[in-house]
TrEMBL record:
<dbReference type="Pfam" id="PF01636">
    <property type="entry name" value="APH"/>
</dbReference>
<dbReference type="InterPro" id="IPR002575">
    <property type="entry name" value="Aminoglycoside_PTrfase"/>
</dbReference>
<keyword id="KW-0418">Kinase</keyword>
<protein>
    <submittedName>
        <fullName>Aminoglycoside phosphotransferase (APT) family kinase protein</fullName>
    </submittedName>
</protein>
<keyword id="KW-0808">Transferase</keyword>
<dbReference type="GO" id="GO:0016301">
    <property type="term" value="F:kinase activity"/>
</dbReference>
<dbReference type="InterPro" id="IPR011009">
    <property type="entry name" value="Kinase-like_dom_sf"/>
</dbReference>
<dbReference type="InterPro" id="IPR051678">
    <property type="entry name" value="AGP_Transferase"/>
</dbReference>
<feature type="domain" description="Aminoglycoside phosphotransferase">
    <location>
        <begin position="51"/>
        <end position="284"/>
    </location>
</feature>
Amino acid sequence: MTAAEIGSYPAPPGGRMPGVTLHENEIPIDEDVVRSLLREQRPDLASLPLSPAGAGTENVMYRLGDELLVRVPRTAAKAAALRKEQAWLPRLAPLLTYRIPEPVHAGAPGAAFPVPWSIFRWIDGAEPGPDTVRDWAALGTDLAAFVRELHGLDLMGASRAGELSWYRGGDLKACDEWISAAFGDCRTTVSAGLDVDILERIWRDAVALPEPAGPHVWLHGDLKPTNLLVERGRLRAVIDFGALSVGAPDAEHATVWDLPPAARRAYWDAADLDDHTWARARAWAVGVGVSGISYYWNTYPAFVAECRARLENILGDAATR
C-alpha cells in the first residue's frame, strides 16, 4: 500500500460536496491542466503515466510515473507554501531522522495554470490507521521523537516573518475573535451532539494563560495522521510542509488529539511538557477543530467529521492536560 498525499486532508470518495469548491478564487485543476504544465516545463516527464493521488484543502495531487508526485495549489494564495517548501525542505531533510518530501521541480505559472506548482519525489508508505498500525504507543513515541528533533534544529537564519509566520506559531489571543465566531457557528450546526460550552471554556482558560516564553523553533504546523506515513506500523515519513513556519511550539502538539488514546499517552510521556504548554496545545486543537467545522460545513463533510472526532476526543479524554 502506498500513500503520498503531500497535501493536507486527502479526501475520500464523497468527501467533498459534488460541484462545490472549497475556497473563493479557486482555480480549476484537472489532468489536462497538469499535462499542459508538464509539456511546457518538463517535456522529459510529460509522457509518464498520470493518476489522481489525493485532493486536499490546499492542493490537488497527481502521481507521475512511479517516482514522482505533482502538487498543484487550489488558489494563488496557497502557492506561497510551495515556494517555502522548495527553499527550506532540502536544508532540513539531511538533519532529520525521518524522511520528508524532496522537491524535484519548482513549476512556474503556465498558459493553462496561472500560479506556481511543484513536483516532489514519491514516498512509499501508508497512512496510519487500524489496518496499518498495531502498536499505537510506538507510533506516538515516534511522533514525539520527530517533533523533538525538528524543534531542536538550528533556525539557520530563519525567523517568524513573511511566509514563515503562521497563526499556529503565535499567541492564542491573536485568534480569539475569529475562533469565538466559530464557536457561534458550531452552536447552530453540531451543538446537539457536541458540548460547545465546555470546548469554549477550554479555549478561554488557555487564552488567559501567559504567552509562551520559550525560544521560537521550526514548526511543521499540521502533524495530523493524514500527513504521516508509516511502514510496518512505525513512522517512516512526515509529509505536507505547507504550514512550515517558525514560532512557539505549543500548537505543534495539538494534533495528538487526532490519535488513539495509546498514542496520545505515549506522546505525552515522551514529550514531557509543562501543564501550561499542554493547556495551550489543547486549546489550539479546539480552535482548529471548531474553525474547521465552521469553514467547511457546507463543502467538505469528511473534514468536518475529522474535526468533530478531534473535539470528541478532547471532551472524552480524562487524561488531557
